[in-house]
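ok so for the tutorial part 2 we go from a plain amino acid sequence to predicted structure tokens. step 1 is just haveing the sequence, like this:
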Amino acid sequence: MASKSQQAKPIGVFDSGIGGLTVVKALMKQFPHENIVYFGDTARVPYGPKSPEVVREYAAQDTDFLVKHNVKMIVVACNTVSSVALEVVQKHSRVPVVGVIVPGAKAAVEATMKKRIGVIGTVGTINSNAYTNAIRQFDASATVIGQPCPLFVPLAEEGWIDHKATEMIAKEYLFPLKLQKIDTLVLGCTHYPILGKVIKSFFADNIILIDSGEATAIEVERVLDEHELRNSSTLKANVQFFVSDIPYRFMEIGERFLGQKLGRVRKAEGFF
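step 2 — the prediction. this is what the tokens look like for a chain of 272 residues:
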């Protein structure tokens, strides 16, 4: 059994920017007593359009930052890193690592009735076929249709949730998926749950949305229990936020993603 001091260590979470806060929100709901250290690489966001080589380099640096904060496990809240660089995180961390792809894929297979699953994400995530491969690991007979939706990221950050422009762009992106008669849609980018209402309304509610953040929290619970790493403390969790650039901007937008005040956001000194 892990010692109390080991159990009290924080869960490390990182993302290319702000979207990973939807994963932190799910973790905070599931584990109110788990300490968390979050790192958002706001200086180099977005990771989605970058080459796999560059993403792997960034992932190694993000992991090293969390390791220095003595974390007991790492949650890769970035779909792009989960797609192309999960093994880099595992190699650099030596603690349990959970990505968002496999939990999201598993939840989609469990939810679909028609075995017709759509996946929306960044260009990098969709081009990697990571979700398609993961879904087919769980059900080889499932049909998977991917669709990149890069403009959803800035729309979510602007808070354009009930905006005509968002509806028009959603229609443009999602129409091909509607034609394919999908019944389940994986939100393969941590920004996308913010636009869940717009996405669902386009399908006239005839769709099951899979929030990878919520699915990931369930997988984190399994890993914590397997390694006996759950924090036995009943004290309020200490949640720390670090970014590589512009903390005030992160704080401003982040409250929308987290659904509550963030408190202090610090610049990760000496990160570069």
